[in-house]
């Protein structure tokens, strides 16, 4: 065997071995496997010189190269051990660790609970094809009352204590004017499916269950042939989602000037024989209101509803006093 | 309004129906019953007692010692009683020891001025039945001692509380009889006829009546009754009390009784206090005054309707009578008024005077004129029964031509089924409507012709939709199955401005660590004063603000947010608040207008320089705009703009996107903070969400990432405040090569060896080529060009 070839093999083997021992990461070892020990690497490249050797030396040289390769592969495998989980365990066997040590805190902000509940309800309605719209808080008397079938000097005006503005406008007493705006926006076409969340105002002294500034979600669904059965169906579906699980609903007659017939809707868990909970006001949109919105009541029908967001929020979180909502109090807001 | 079970039972047999069921059925079919009080419960244990003996108390002149038998053969109870009217032989209401009275008192054995006393002889107020306290209640008729008082007919009652809002549209339900009519339908029982006695004799004997043109009275009836003095019987007084009215005397009580029963107010005048023989309904006169029964002098106007006796006004029509012609204990002759007044007129008068009465609450609903006559007959009949010596002293005089409106309409029964979503048969509809008093016949098109009963007819007419409600509630809404509407698929979206606000809320509450606050839409005068807000005289303002000093609408969300700081800074050295809401102002043409605002305030103690907070606020602004939809803003100091008073006069800037203003940010005026008594630095940001939504529509372009490695260097430049950071960024960009991809200012340093008015700004620079790895040489060349370029705008490498 020519000693030059043998010497080259030995030198190369030593060089790769040194690199293996110096490797500091598993990735470096991978690289050695993929380059030095690869089929096209320098080491196995020595095999290509075998044809220049005398035939009697060829077998022995081939064996030497294979031995070198095997031993280097073993060295890589052994070196890799240092990077296994077991090695980490061995190295930290005496380390102290307490996951309950204080970790400081990442500063966080808070969304108002009414925002959170409103969003949840909006998502449910959007998934049913209702769009979210809004209207002005300073309303004209016409939109807040007259066009909603609440004429001036009619006792229906007393159903809501009104905050009047100089110049004759009002702070809207309900989100219902948005019904008219949505109908007019749709240009006399149906279907219309919208909800309108927003701030509303009543001239009432606040107490634990009343605020003069609070939040409603108005809803409107118009099409040809929409019925009371549809109203029950949609609202039951939505309430089941809001309260989780299945609920049943019932309608009681109630007077809202802009619907006929008008209802209050009560709900309770399906199968429960507990108390009914009054949850929202609703009804079939009054023909005068449809006309004011540019629709023909002989062709189009639909339902409208309004729910109190503050009350739903109080129920969701068990809040005992509605006055917390507008308090801006850190002890309240930072809990959400 | 209150309902009395005893009273209802006069009109419809309700035997076998417990109060719970009655309340439930009315709530489900007619109107909301908010609750009921069963007086019988409060009277358990209380029995009829007979006063066997009544003698003086040895230790007190005003007290008596009585022996009361309850008829069970046991020894009579020894009871000390302070009432002046107690006497032997009386049947009284006796509460034995151990009874708990409706007012919560539990009776125990006691000694009163040395005399033992077992139980109590009760006055009506102690039983919760009436207002009397001065004397005990003496029972009439032959009653067995020992009978439980709750079993006495017509004595204890069940009182139901009606939600008035749910009957605003139902004038027929403002009386017991209206509810009796509903109950007769609901429980399939007969409505008893109303006892009206004989027809009144019409004619022109008695005070003449005159209706002036435009007086707002379309029908006026009058009747004189003689011999009406006296006190009302207990059962009647108890009913009035149960329904919330104070008993006075028989003539007045009966008027109230008829109103509570039928819904039609009447008014008794003392006939002898009326000046002449003529009653005129006329408009009020300018400067005219009238002292009403509540002893308040009222100013009248020509818009009011007044009842006059020729010499003066004696009543404000439909609202309240005058003290001058009031029926008193001495009154023996009354002139009874029953009339149909214009609902709008009386409502306006009541509103202007701030005077609401039970009568007004009924007149304003628009009553059936037919009731005018029924009420007079009912009053006369009841008076005949209760004051047998009463004589009718006039003919029944009526002026005016109003009659019950007749409403007729056609009803498409198919529409009713479609609208309810319930296959209710025609027969069933007929039955429901007929039971409620509607007259139904078939028409040629297969539907109904319906005539509306007088008590349901209204001046506005009746709509088919009204009949949908009548049919629905009587057949029962519970019969309607839940259905899901069929229609085209729609995609629900948020209005663009609302979507922007939601996205920004998320950024502010998470990345910016701010807490969302809701504040009132008004700004307090105190706030305006402290922050020296300049609000124009015509700034939108509430006419009838609840709180004095909070009538003006907020000109921005910021001021009240600043007022919150004190509370928040009490808990922590830093406050980070935001609110999404509306601000209000007036347009040049004077019309009020509102804007959608997102306002952020950050305040910190121990922050030497508010410019640090402004820099932080700039980061918040950039994050917010990024959250709103990857909008790249530019920032510019407003040189000439006049700003709201809370901003720092020198440290406020505008935020622009493509040259359009979308917001303002800067430091809060240290003077304002001092006036708020806050030792902090503070900065604010205000974004205009409508403007943001409009800018958003432009969208932003995607760039394919380079696969070549980037090269980074940091450079710091010293510049005076004459050169803004944005100008330095521009200078770096224009001097740099095309491979300069990012210029990010990241640190500002003031002080040290730097001169006053100078600061050092450090920039991260990122170079990257599309097609080659940049060499060290490439980067150095670029660096030299940049340094030279920046020196040209007046800054120097640090």
Describe this structure in words.
- The complex is a heterodimer of chains A (336) and B (798).
- Chain A is 39% helix and 18% strand.
- Chain A is α+β, with helices and mostly antiparallel strands and 336 residues long.
- In chain A, the strands form two sheets. Chain A has a seven-stranded mixed β-sheet with strand order 1-4-5-9-8-7-6, sandwiched between helices. A two-stranded antiparallel sheet of chain A has the order 2-3.
- The longest helix of chain A is centred in the first third of the chain and has 27 residues, at 55-81.
- In chain B, the strands form ten sheets. A seven-stranded mixed β-sheet of chain B has the order 27-30-31-35-34-33-32, sandwiched between helices.
- The model of chain B has no long low-confidence stretch (mean pLDDT 92).
- Chain B is of the alpha+beta class.
- In chain B, helix 6 (250-262) packs across helix 9, helix 11 crosses helix 12 (464-475) and helix 19 packs across helix 20 (776-792).
- Chain B is elongated.
- At the A-B interface, helix 6, strand 1, strand 4, strand 5 and helix 9 of A face helix 2, helix 7, helix 10, helix 12 and helix 13 of B.
């Amino acid at each position: 065997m020519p000693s030059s070839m043998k010497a080259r093999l030995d030198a190369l083997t030593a060089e790769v071995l040194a690199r293996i021992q110096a490797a500091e990461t598993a990735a470096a070892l991978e690289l050695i496997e993929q380059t030095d020990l690869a089929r096209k690497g320098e080491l196995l490249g020595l095999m290509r010189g075998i044809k220049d050797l005398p035939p009697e030396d060829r077998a022995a040289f081939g064996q030497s190269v294979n031995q070198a390769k095997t031993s280097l592969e073993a060295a890589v495998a052994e070196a890799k051990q240092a990077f296994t989980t077991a090695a980490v365990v061995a190295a930290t066997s005496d380390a102290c660790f307490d996951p309950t040590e204080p970790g400081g805190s990442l500063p966080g902000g808070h969304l108002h609970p009414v925002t959170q509940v409103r969003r949840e309800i909006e998502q449910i309605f959007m998934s049913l094809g209702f769009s979210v719209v809004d209207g002005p808080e300073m309303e004209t008397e016409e939109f807040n009352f007259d066009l909603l079938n609440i004429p001036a000097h009619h006792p229906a005006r007393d159903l809501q204590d009104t905050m009047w503005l100089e110049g004759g406008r009002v702070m809207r007493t309900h989100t219902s004017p948005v019904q008219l705006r949505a109908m007019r926006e749709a240009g006399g076409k149906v279907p219309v499916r919208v909800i309108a969340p927003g701030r509303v105002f009543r001239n009432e002294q606040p107490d634990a269950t009343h605020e003069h500034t609070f939040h409603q979600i108005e809803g409107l669904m118009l099409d040809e042939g929409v019925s009371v059965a549809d109203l029950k169906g949609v609202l039951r579906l939505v309430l089941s989602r809001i309260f989780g699980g299945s609920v049943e609903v019932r309608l009681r007659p109630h007077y809202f000037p802009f619907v006929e017939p008008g209802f209050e809707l009560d709900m309770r868990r399906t199968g429960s024989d507990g108390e009914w909970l009054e949850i929202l006001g609703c009804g079939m949109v009054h023909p005068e209101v449809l006309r004011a919105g540019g629709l023909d009541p002989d062709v189009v029908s639909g339902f409208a509803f309004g729910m109190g967001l503050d009350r739903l929020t109080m129920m969701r979180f068990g809040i005992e006093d509605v006055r917390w909502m507008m308090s801006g109090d850190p002890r309240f807001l930072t809990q959400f | 309004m209150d309902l009395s079970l005893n009273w209802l039972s006069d009109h419809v047999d309700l035997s076998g129906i417990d109060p719970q069921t009655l309340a439930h059925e009315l709530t489900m079919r007619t109107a909301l019953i908010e609750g009921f009080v069963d007086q019988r419960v409060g009277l358990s244990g209380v029995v009829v007692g007979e006063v066997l003996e009544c003698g003086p108390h040895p230790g007190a002149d005003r007290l008596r010692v009585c022996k009361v038998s309850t008829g069970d053969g046991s020894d009579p109870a020894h009871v000390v009683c302070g009432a002046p009217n107690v006497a032997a032989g009386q049947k009284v209401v006796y509460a034995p020891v151990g009874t708990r009275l409706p007012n919560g008192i539990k009776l125990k054995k006691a000694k009163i001025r040395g005399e033992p006393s077992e139980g109590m002889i009760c006055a009506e107020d102690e039983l919760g039945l009436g207002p009397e306290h001065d004397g005990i209640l003496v029972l009439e008729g032959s009653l067995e001692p020992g009978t439980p008082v709750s079993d006495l007919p017509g004595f204890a009652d069940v009182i139901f509380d009606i939600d008035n809002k749910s009957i605003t549209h139902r004038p027929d339900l403002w009386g017991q009889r209206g509810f009796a009519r509903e109950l007769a339908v609901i429980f399939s029982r007969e409505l008893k006829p109303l006892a009206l006695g004989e027809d009144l004799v019409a004619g022109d004997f008695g005070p003449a009546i005159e209706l002036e043109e435009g007086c707002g009275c379309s029908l006026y009836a009058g009747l004189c009754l003689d011999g009406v003095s006296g006190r009302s019987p207990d059962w009647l007084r108890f009913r009035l009390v149960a329904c919330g009215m104070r008993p006075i005397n028989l003539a007045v009580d009966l008027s109230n009784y008829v109103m509570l029963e039928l819904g039609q107010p009447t008014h008794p005048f003392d006939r002898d206090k009326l000046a002449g023989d003529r009653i005129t309904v006329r408009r009020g006169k300018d400067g005219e005054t009238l002292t009403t029964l509540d002893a308040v002098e009222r100013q009248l106007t020509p818009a009011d309707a007044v009842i006059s006796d020729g010499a003066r006004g004696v009543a404000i029509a439909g609202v309240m009578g005058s003290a001058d012609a009031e029926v008193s204990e001495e009154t023996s002759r009354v002139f009874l008024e029953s009339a149909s007044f214009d609902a709008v007129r009386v409502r306006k008068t009541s509103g202007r005077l701030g005077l609401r009465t039970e009568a007004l609450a009924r007149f304003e609903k628009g009553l059936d004129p037919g009731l005018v006559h029924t009420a007079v007959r009912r009053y006369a009949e009841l008076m005949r029964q209760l004051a047998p010596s009463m004589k009718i002293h006039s003919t029944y005089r009526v002026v005016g031509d109003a009659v019950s409106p007749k409403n007729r309409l056609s009803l498409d029964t198919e529409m009713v089924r479609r609208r309810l979503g319930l296959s209710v048969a025609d027969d069933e509809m007929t039955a429901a409507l007929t039971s409620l008093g509607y007259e139904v016949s078939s028409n040629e098109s297969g539907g109904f012709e319906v005539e509306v009963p007088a008590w349901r007819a209204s001046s506005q007419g009746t709509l088919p939709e009204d009949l949908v409600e009548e049919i629905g509630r009587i057949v029962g809404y519970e019969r309607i199955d839940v259905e899901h509407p069929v229609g085209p698929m729609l995609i629900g979206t948020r209005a663009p401005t609302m979507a922007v606000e939601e996205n920004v809320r998320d950024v502010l509450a998470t990345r910016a660590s701010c807490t969302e606050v809701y504040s009132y839409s008004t700004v307090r005068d105190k706030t305006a004063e402290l922050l020296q807000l300049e609000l124009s005289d015509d700034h939108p303002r509430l006419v009838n603000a609840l709180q004095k000093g909070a009538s003006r609408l907020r000109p921005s969300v910021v001021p009240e947010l600043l007022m919150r700081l004190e509370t928040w800074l009490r808990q922590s050295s830093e406050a980070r608040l935001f609110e999404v809401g509306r601000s209000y102002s007036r347009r040049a043409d004077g019309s009020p207008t509102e804007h959608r605002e997102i306002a952020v305030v950050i305040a910190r103690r121990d922050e030497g320089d508010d410019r640090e907070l402004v820099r932080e606020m700039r980061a918040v602004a950039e994050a917010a705009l990024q959250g709103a939809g990857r909008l790249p803003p530019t920032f510019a100091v407003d040189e000439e703009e006049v700003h709201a008073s809370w901003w720092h006069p020198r440290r406020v800037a505008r935020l622009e996107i493509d040259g359009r203003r979308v917001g303002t940010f800067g430091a809060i005026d240290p003077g304002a903070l001092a006036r708020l008594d806050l030792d902090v630095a503070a900065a604010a940001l205000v974004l205009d969400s409508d403007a943001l939504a409009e800018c958003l529509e432009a969208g932003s372009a995607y760039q394919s990432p380079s696969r070549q490695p980037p090269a980074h260097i940091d450079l710091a430049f010293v510049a005076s405040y004459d050169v803004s950071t944005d100008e330095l960024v521009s200078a770096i960009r224009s001097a740099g090569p095309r491979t300069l991809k990012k210029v990010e200012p990241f640190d500002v340093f003031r002080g040290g060896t730097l001169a006053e008015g100078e600061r050092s700004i450090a920039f991260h620079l990122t170079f990257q080529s599309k097609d080659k790895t940049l060499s060290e040489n490439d980067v150095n060349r670029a660096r030299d060009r940049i340094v030279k370029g920046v020196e040209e705008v007046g800054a120097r490498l640090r």
